[in-house]
Design goal:
Structural class: alpha/beta
Helix content: 40-55%
CATH class of the largest domain: Alpha Beta
CATH topology of the largest domain: Spore Coat Polysaccharide Biosynthesis Protein SpsA, Chain A
CATH architecture of the largest domain: Alpha-Beta Complex
Radius of gyration: 21 Å
Largest sheet: 9 strands, mixed
Number of domains: 2
CATH superfamily of the largest domain: Spore Coat Polysaccharide Biosynthesis Protein SpsA, Chain A
Number of strands: 13
Distance between the termini: 43 Å
Amino acid sequence: MNISVVIPAFNAEVTIGKCLGSLYAQSVKPLEIIVVDNNSTDNTKDLVLQIFDNQKEIPACCLDENRQGPSFARNYGAIRAKGEIIAFIDADCIADPSWLCRLSESFDSSDIGAVAGSIIGFDDETAIGKFHAMFTMRGLPQSQMFHEFNLVSGGFPTANFAIKKHLFEAIGGFDEALPIYSEDYDLCARTYKAGLNIFYNKEVKVFHQHRQNLTSTWRQSYGFGTGHATLLKKHFRRMLIIEVPRFRYISRRWPLRAWLDIASADKKFMLCLILSGIWWPFLLILISYLILLYRDMGLRMKKDHIVADFCERWNMVFLLLFKSMAITSGRLKGSFSHGVLCF
């Protein structure tokens, strides 16, 4: 199958060069490369045009989309795409040399409408980079087929996502009315509703430059949280999800739309903090919980082959609490906006 690659770009001059370089280095070349500049105020467009001018072997173009947002940019690029498959990648990603080859091979059945792959953080120098590599847009340990979207599984980010063009057109592309951080999972949900499956292939790899400061980390995580409430409202008339440590309950029997995550780190921390304020000996439980988070962080780092010193590990414990608090805040905001219970 021939593949068109679509890249939305907003102020991406620092990363777009490496992204495009990785596409030119593919073992199987794309049919075309389409960059959609989404109102960049830096030198993104000039840099892209310069690269395209120097690399003539693959047809390429840089389009302008003045409506702000990745849904607008991706839809506009997809409209112009000529390939049977549209592969989406972000401007801050680097594709593995086998990316397009493995994507193409993954569409080996007529009931597969889309393919998702692994998103791997490539910053192993800073504590925040190491943290995001472990906790942000984590891939699954095994390749598998997905048949439905239920909020906690079946949805995939479009930093590494490919879909058949005729299906993309049939389901109306990305919903431009949705905010960022929910439009990609919404596309997945509508793929299943069209009667097709999504294959997650962990060998389809891209390397992603995750957020590099607290402000952008909070903004992204808060957006994830509001997106959960948005998706709960749009795609489910009945859905109850309850998550507690080591247990998850999912049911569509009950006449309500609710997602209660009691297992998140921020909620456990706040409970210990409140109890400590009521009776000071509970402070020992709070301290014990923080030590447990530090220990678990070390175990996760060992599993992922990440090295960090004492201070970096404590920084990552703080980042875990910070990120989970941002997600909870976004969920509460989304709950009030959409009339669901997401906490």
